[in-house]
Amino acid sequence: MEAADGKHFVIERKDFHRLFEVLRQRGYQIIGPTLQDGAIVYAEIQGETDLPIGVTDEQDGGTYRVKPRNDQALFGYAVGPVSLKKFLSPPSVKILGARRQSNTFEIQPSCPETRRYAFLGVRSCDLQAIRIQDKIFLQGRHVDPVYKAGREQALLIAVNCGQAASTCFCTSMNSGPRAVEGFDLALTEVVQQERHFFIGQTGTSLGEEICGELVCRPAQPQDLSAGEQVLRQTASQIKRTLNTQGIKELLYRNYDHPYWEEAGERCLSCANCTMVCPTCFCSTVEDVTDITGEHAERWRLWDSCFSLDHSYIHGGHVRFSAKARYRQWMTHKLASWQDQFGTTGCVGCGRCIAWCPVGIDITQVARLIRENQVAEKKAP
Q1: Taking 50 as the threshold, does the pLDDT of residue 380 lie above it?
Q2: CA 132/CA 129 separation, integer angstroms
Q3: 377 confidence band (pLDDT: 50, 70, 90)
Q4: Positive or negative, the Cα torsion across 298, 299, 305, 309?
Q5: pLDDT of residue 2
């Protein structure tokens, strides 16, 4: 590990519980990985016993399973279906209420709920996703107050990946398996026959404050070497790749590629890929009223570009076929997102591959289009 970046320290497994005590004393609501309904998901946790101890995941196209490990690792898995956008940009948000007052309505704006989240176990790909969503929700003229309220007080404790899934391609997107920025603390779990410990790294002054309250010691060269070995092993497990060289121009140039038709025939338009994606941010607005007509509310809800109504404008739907919707999603994710935000919208987490019911693989679609490009039409 690169000792030049932040202070490095070691927490022994027996002392790891102290981290939870410190976070609770500081008033944080701890969000971390836990096993629920056959999947490892981010949810509120109270202590280390809530973590998926000795559990790993097995992923492939359209496949996700949890199974026991042969050790007692706390973070021995890749990523589950839930990303941190569930907490920073919730699936449903009340925007305002309105109550009838004589012949008019009194508007009651909804104030964002402020919560002090401590996110534990954040993978490097999800850190990259947060940086992308920061650009969307915090930069420019239109700042999202809901996202801002949660993001400003969020504490990010990353865990470097000790195991990759077959769906991971973070190395292609420069987003993993090592967390390099955007964290307050970063941990690397080392499980050996005789030892189980964590190598920590501070990333901010807040992280240094918390480190000062933990039971830890300065990291030694042999500790750092053990952490490097974990990361090298994880990187070697990543076999999926996405060639991003000229990807924007490639997709723009192949708008009429015949493979879009094949992908559209398989696509169920179920929106799973957008729901599990840590960067997708489409939303819709819904107005509801009570049976008396005296009270109304406006809610912002997660939506998806795979829903037919998402592209509805006066007169009809813009993207009425599954082919058009899949092409829109992938082209936006990898191409036009760059024009909008200066980055791709993909972090290589592989969730869209694992949680697609028919196993459509974004890396395979990109590769087939690249290998079988449509010849450019030349002007007569």
Answers
A1: no
A2: 5
A3: very low
A4: negative
A5: 38
Please tell me the predicted confidence (pLDDT) of residue 1.
34
Contact between residue 163 and residue 76 where contact means Cβ atoms under 8 Å apart: yes
**Cβ–Cβ under 8 Å, residues 212 and 11:** no
Query: What does the pLDDT look like over 25-83, one tens digit per residue?
Result: 999 999 999 999 999 999 999 999 999 999 999 999 999 999 999 999 999 999 999 99
Q: Can you tell me whether residue 43 is helix, strand or coil?
A: strand
> CA 267 to CA 230: how far, in whole Å?
37
Amino acid identity at 217 = R
Q: Which of left, alpha, beta for 5 (phi over 0: left; psi -120 to 50: alpha)? A: beta
* Peptide bond between residue 91 and the one before it cis (omega within 30 degrees of 0): no
Terminal CA-CA length for the chain: 58
374: DSSP letter: P
Distance CA 63, CA 282 (A): 25
Torsion angles phi and psi, residue 253, rounded to 5 = -75, -25
Write 142-149 long-range contacts (CB < 8 A, 24+): 144/89, 145/112, 146/89, 146/90, 146/93, 146/112, 147/88, 147/89, 148/112, 149/112, 149/113, 149/114, 149/115
